[in-house]
Design a protein that fits this description.
Helix content: 10-25%
Largest sheet: 8 strands, mixed
Distance between the termini: 33 Å
Shape: globular
CATH topology of the largest domain: TIM Barrel
CATH class of the largest domain: Alpha Beta
Strand order of the largest sheet: 7-8-9-10-11-12-13-14
Radius of gyration: 20 Å
Number of helices: 7
Number of domains: 2
CATH superfamily of the largest domain: Aldolase class I
CATH architecture of the largest domain: Alpha-Beta Barrel
Order of helices and strands: EEEEEEEEHEHEHEHHEHEHEEEEEE
Strand content: 15-25%
């Protein structure tokens, strides 16, 4: 166990967790919504520090990250817990059987990444926001050892939490289901959906994080022109037309397992909406094409980045961060310095 950050002690041994917008008031012995933060006699502890649910050495493109250190190999880690329980995605808790718990301390994480010649480290499976204490310690070490860093998140953390992590993050990759209330209320019973948008914009404005947005297309939920157009316009107006937007084919799970997955034409329809809204980089992620979509210059159409079937990445159309044909500056992050 590890004492948690960002909490306040109230009367009668109750604690107020201030990590995320839920701001759980947790009585002694109880857990927060995330199921990994527990009040023990008036002190808040994390139950998931260093506990790893998944680990992989993989091309950064496999996770749908295209404009942050293209062609790099990353160590991707996942913890336990999630503060956004949604019908479309089951959320497993920390295994009760200690034999199913794997611990990786930050120092061993660095050794592992160095041994495998990784260029970056990512925290991306489950929800890294509720793994804050571990991710913060690990990110500090990662930056000190020359790695670039990023998280893939639902963005359900408070700005105070991001202020702790922001100095050590290069990338902030957010899953955005919609830019309005109905989808989050339907899927997640979430009243705090605006904080997701606000924290994402704050990551860019305050901490100059590289942003990419992922939207799973879910039939019957967010496959509506107004909802898709709303996400595109929010990205364009609140952050930048240069922010890459990845449209994923949702693979039904949890309560929504019986539902059909979106077809290629559904994704192409959404892509067209994003492009017509003015977004410069809108990608489809489906099946064998995940991580393999090329990048073209939004101005002249020149091939900028080629992503081949074996995840070999070439950048024939970029020189000094600009298109070799029309000299347009390309949204690309290739330095660990912010």
């Amino acid at each position: 166990m590890h004492e948690a950050l960002l909490y306040e002690q109230l009367d009668d041994q109750v604690v107020l967790c201030q990590l995320c917008p839920w701001k759980c008031q947790i009585p002694a012995g109880a857990l927060g919504r995330c199921q990994v933060r527990q009040n023990q006699e008036g002190f808040l502890y994390t139950l998931n520090y260093g506990l790893v649910s998944a680990a992989a050495i993989e091309p950064i493109e496999l996770g749908g990250v295209y404009h942050l250190f293209p062609g790099s190999m990353v160590l991707s880690l996942g913890g336990w817990g999630n503060n956004l329980a949604c019908r479309h995605r089951p959320v497993p808790g920390v295994p009760e059987d200690e034999k199913n718990r794997r611990f990786l301390d930050p120092e061993r994480m660095i050794e592992f990444a160095l041994d495998r010649r990784c260029r970056g480290i990512a925290w991306r499976y489950q929800e890294p926001g509720v793994w804050m204490e571990y991710v913060l310690d690990a990110a500090k070490l990662a930056k000190a050892n020359g790695f670039f860093t990023f998280i893939v998140t639902n963005s359900m953390i408070n700005k105070e939490a991001l202020d702790l992590l922001g100095p050590y993050l290069n990338g902030y990759i957010v899953e955005l289901l919609a830019a309005e209330a109905s989808v989050y209320e339907n899927l997640c019973e979430l009243p705090h959906w605006r904080e997701i948008l606000e924290t994402t914009a704050y990551a860019k404005e305050r901490w100059n994080c590289h942003i990419e947005v992922h939207t799973p297309l879910i039939l019957g939920i967010n496959r509506e022109e107004g909802l898709i157009h709303g996400v595109a316009c929010w990205i364009r107006d609140e952050i930048s037309v240069d922010i890459p937007w990845h449209l994923w084919a949702y693979e039904p799970a949890g309560e929504m397992s019986p539902q059909a997955a979106p077809a290629q034409q559904d994704l192409e329809w959404a892509q067209k909406i994003g492009q017509e809204a003015g977004l410069r980089y809108v990608y489809i992620q489906q099946g064998d094409q995940v991580g393999r979509t090329p990048t073209h210059c939004p101005s002249c159409g020149n091939l900028l980045i080629r992503r081949e079937s074996n995840f070999l990445v070439k950048k024939p159309g970029i020189q000094n961060g600009r298109c070799t044909h029309c000299n347009l500056k390309i949204y690309l992050s290739q330095t660990i310095f912010k």
